[in-house]
Every structure is written in C-alpha cells, then in structure tokens.
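Review this:
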Amino acid sequence: MKAEGIPGSGRRQVRSGSVLTAANVVSFSRVPLAIAFVLLPAAGVRLVVLAVAAATDLLDGWLARRLGPSRLGAWMDPVTDKIFMLTAFTMLAISGALGPFEVVGVLLRDIVAPAGYLSSVIARRPFNVPPARVGGKAVTVGQTLTLFAWLFESPLLRSLAWATAAMALYAIADYGRLAVRSAERPHS
C-alpha cells in the first residue's frame, strides 16, 4: 500500500491494492443497475434505478476519500459510470425521444475521453488520468438530469440534452488541454 498526502488536509491517505473495498463494491453495483435499467422497462422502476445509480456515483467517491482509494477503483469508477450511461442512453435512443446526434452529443465526453486515452497509449505517451474536474462532473450531472427528464417526459428533455452536449465540449477541451500539457513534459 502506498501512503499519499491529501492536498490541503494535512491527512495521509492509504492507496489500497485491494480489490474488495467498499468504494469498489459501490462502483461495481452500477453494472447490475445498468442491466436492470434495460430489463425493467417501467418508467417508475427506471426512475428508482437511475436514482440509485446516481447515489452510488456520489457514495463511491465519498467512501474512497473517507476510507482510502484503490488503484482498481480509480479505473473502475469511470468505467462503470460509462457502462451505466451508455446503457441508459441506448434505451433513450431506442425510444426515439432524442435524435441520434443529440444522444451522441450527450455522450460525447464518454466517447472521446477513452479514445483520447487509447490514442496516448498507442503513441506510447500515456498520461495519468487526472482526478475528476468540474467540467466532467457537470457532464455527469447533465446526463443524469437528461435521463430524469426523459423518464418524467419533461418538455426540458431536448434543452437538457443540448446543454449537456455543450458541457461535454467544454470537458473535452479541458481534459485535452491537460493531455497536451502531459505530452509536452519530458518522460523518463
């Protein structure tokens, strides 16, 4: 295990190599929730599944900060987020409530970020995945609100989708700027 300081807190945090941490279990729970979102088509049930998935996204981060993060969790949290969102937005796309370009816009960050990271690995210049940033968090909130709007049949659905797409463009630019800075640093 590796001890790391938590900036500004004066506390030390243990980075666990363990797979079975509370935060990891909570993160992984989004995979069966994604399956439930597909298999349980009633809007009321999907609302509950979405609310639970959103709560797990908050809870896993809190647990990791409180009890210590793990290397697996740093990877698994964003992957399970993407699995849930891609699954839920696939169901939304199938419903026809939004057009294909709108769905792609909402998911743009979730499409571009892994492609960008894979490109850096192929170029043999992999960068460390930075901690969540404001733009990325805003996209996640926007995606969640867009799904709630769909399930509630809100007239705000299309507006939320476009606003989320705009946030995704900002988040992509922000993460892209960090990736360029990382690539410009000399590697040992």
About this structure: The longest strand covers residues 2-5. The beta strands are 2-5, 12-15. The chain has two domains: 1-84, 96-188. Residues 157-184 form the longest helix (28 residues).
